[in-house]
Amino acid sequence: MDKKISTALVVDDNTVNQRIHRKLLDNLGIQSETVANGKEAVDVHISGKNFDLILMDLEMPIMNGIEATRKLREMGIRSMIAGVSTRSLEEEKQEFMKAGLDDFQEKPLTVAKLVSILHKLNRK
């Protein structure tokens, strides 16, 4: 890969999904942190942290993935943001993409889907 992806933020309110996503990232040598909702994702960036990749769930309490993605882009965050969701109604997916996603994958996330996300990041 051209760009070295070394850090990721997993944004998901489901602890099982958090563990699965972190394990997949770990298997690819990518260090990750987790937060439970979009507001926490925004707050982590306000505190000065940056990540190469953000895996953003759509439906979360407090601040959903669409709102969080929009807010991060307004803040000038240039990390690749990949939306991941079990629900993929076309209207929701389009709204999520318009908020500033670089990619969208349906859950469950697999190594193949994660590698696809990373290849898209390398082409950016």
Automatic annotation (TrEMBL):
| Residues covered by the Response regulatory domain | 7-122
At what positions is 4-aspartylphosphate found? Answer: 57
Phosphoprotein: present as a keyword of the record? yes
Which GO BP terms apply?
Answer: phosphorelay signal transduction system
Protein name per its UniProtKB record: Response regulatory domain-containing protein
Which keywords label this protein?
Answer: Phosphoprotein
Known PROSITE patterns for this protein? RESPONSE_REGULATORY (PS50110)
